[in-house]
Design brief:
heterodimer, A: mainly alpha, about 5% strand, B: about 500 residues
């Protein structure tokens, strides 16, 4: 097993996900079989291959720095689970 | 003009975009009559098919009034009065856009995606928002947070995915045309499994502004239609540079309909041996080989090509796509929009509760896989390696297109599989996209068109792949094939 149960818990924490013990075990098994499948890439020598992040040759797309109206506050807040006045509301952050 | 008898027997929902355009412009029918037939059909079969998440009937009849006025004053556009369904991962202002996720079950976007804005400019009528695998992650719609869409050809089987709702709605005549999105085959595979036409344009050809992001370097929007002509018309409506999407290409957009009807004499078609693999369905193999022969009889010249890194595509894809997804889906935190769970004593708990209860299993699995691939110590081994293999796959296509104008392959190794058949084994599900994924990694355009049926009467799809921005050529080849066969005229008996 490449990915241990402890690894799964660590990855879940980084992903901001709670997992039950059962989920930890199921996801652990599945992640291992996927990673095992992915390891076939190691059979390819890519030492002299440039990585591709984007297939169409475009870079530094610029626009004029002009003022434009943005989304009105009341529109931006409309979908918020909890909003007050002009703000999103969350539990106290600073003790 | 249609006489009374003609109107009684003609079901307008069964027609195509171009057929309806003609009838509407002749004023033989009104946009409201088209809507009546579409919604009657939805009432009749939607219980079985379950293609839609949201039906927008009231606003559709409002849009029909404007369409009627435009036609009466001879000011109609490309899609005036044409009923279109849109996959529920494209933002429609004020209209629920859920991505088939509990996370966005109550999300009503404050802005319009560029594709639907362009359809609006052409005066389309939105019929409803279609089902998908949650956040477009899946190949069967079984990962939808709401319900599984059924294949109109056999309701025991999946419609494919992730744009399974759009493909099923088109196949069942529950709309005239639809939009899907394709990250690893999500337009082409469901089109193949439902016996309709699905086009994934070149990366950058269609704006992604307002498409809820899954894997930004791979996602692309395209049409799902009843025939190739409609595919060209829909692409005409949505293609073109958009300043709101910095990855949209400033490439010239031709009138794609102009390519249709040109003969294909001398067109070089490449048939890569890597796409005829062990375990492939015999009927799929036969149908695709016969299709290649048919193209040859129309004057195309077969050439040998090789795409040697095909076997590595699924592995590279599931590193790159999940890495991008883990980053894109970090925005769902239960604060600005979307689902927030009860309770949570601090901010971190709010985030974790919302994400743990708001996302389904496949989304969690992919976020975790991507997080792992990008995490400290593993980046070079997985993410960078995946990007290097992407380079090799792109070079395969560059080399193949020196020999061939169009590459012809099966769209999917099998016809539609049964609901539940692959849903417990994620890797088996991933492998169902084995023939479509390379295309996204290389960013090239590809279309899937019907090319036959299995002995159980399940549709088979033929994939035609072209060079970057050469949609015109694959549409031309697809149209020539379609016009010499009758597969596209068959309809499921629902």
């Amino acid at each position: 097993m490449k990915i241990t149960q402890e690894d799964v818990k660590h990855i879940a924490r980084l992903s901001r996900l709670y997992l039950s013990d059962e989920e930890t075990s199921t996801f652990g098994g599945q992640l291992n079989s996927i990673i095992e499948y992915v390891e076939q890439l190691n059979g390819l020598d890519t030492s002299s291959v440039e990585p591709t992040s984007h297939v169409i040759p475009l870079n530094n797309v610029m626009r004029d720095d002009t003022l434009k109206p943005s989304l009105p506050i009341e529109e931006a807040l409309k979908n918020a689970p909890d909003a007050t006045e002009k703000f999103y509301r969350v539990p106290k952050i600073i003790e | 003009m249609l006489n009374a008898i003609g109107r009684n027997t003609l079901k307008l929902n069964e027609l195509t975009v171009s057929e309806l355009r003609r009838l509407l412009d002749n004023r033989g029918i009104k946009p409201q009559e088209v809507l009546d037939d579409v919604y009657n059909r939805i009432d009749a079969v939607e219980d079985k098919v379950k293609a839609y998440i949201t039906i927008t009937k009231d606003s559709a009849y409002e849009m029909a009034k404007d369409a009627e006025q435009a036609i009466l004053s001879n000011k109609q556009s490309l899609l005036t009065g044409i009923p279109v369904a849109v996959k529920d991962n494209m933002c429609t202002k004020g209209i629920s856009t859920t991505c088939a996720s509990k996370m966005l079950h109550n999300f009503k976007p404050p802005y319009e995606s560029t594709v639907t804005a362009r359809l609006k400019e052409q005066e389309y009528i939105l019929i409803g928002k279609t089902n998908l695998d949650e956040f477009a992650m899946g190949s069967s719609t079984e990962n939808s947070g709401f319900h599984t869409t059924r294949n109109p050809w056999d309701p025991e089987r999946v419609p494919g995915g992730s744009s399974g709702g759009s493909a099923a709605a088109v196949a069942a005549d529950e709309c005239i045309a639809a939009l899907g999105s394709d990250t690893g085959g999500s337009i082409r595979q469901p089109a193949a499994l439902c016996g309709v036409v699905g086009l994934k344009p070149t990366y950058g050809r269609v704006s992604r502004y307002g498409l809820v992001a899954f894997a930004s370097s791979l996602d692309q929007i395209g049409p799902i239609t009843k025939n190739v002509m409609d595919s060209a018309i829909m692409l005409n409506a949505v293609a073109g540079h958009d300043p709101l999407d910095s990855t949209s290409a400033p490439a010239e957009v031709p009138d794609f309909a102009n390519f249709l009807g040109q003969d294909i004499k001398g067109l070089k078609i490449g048939i890569p041996k890597e796409y005829f693999i062990e375990g492939m369905d015999k009927y799929v193999d036969d149908a695709v080989r016969s299709a290649a022969k048919k193209l040859e009889s129309l004057g195309a010249i077969p050439v040998e090509v090789s795409l040697p890194h095909t076997g590595y595509a699924v592995a590279a894809y599931y590193i790159l796509a999940t890495s991008e997804a883990s980053s894109n889906l970090a925005r769902y935190d239960g604060v600005k929009y979307g689902f927030r769970a009860q309770g949570g004593k601090d901010l971190l708990e709010i985030y974790m509760n919302a994400r743990s209860q708001g996302f389904g299993a496949e989304v969690k699995r992919r976020i975790m896989l991507g997080t792992y691939a990008l995490s400290a110590g593993y980046y070079d081994a997985y993410y960078k390696k995946g990007q290097q293999v992407r380079t090799l796959i792109k070079q395969d296509f560059d080399n193949a297109f020196k020999e061939a104008d169009v590459i012809v392959t099966p769209t999917s190794p099998t016809p539609a599989f049964k609901v539940g058949e692959k849903s417990t084994d994620p890797l088996q599900m991933y492998l169902s996209d084995i023939f479509t994924i390379s295309v996204n990694l290389a960013g090239v355009p590809a279309i899937s068109i019907p090319c036959g049926f299995t002995k159980n009467n399940l549709p088979i799809g033929l994939q035609m792949i072209g060079r970057h921005f050469d949609e015109g050529l694959i549409l031309k080849a697809a149209y020539a094939y379609e016009q010499s066969t009758e597969w596209h005229t068959r309809r499921p008996a629902l």
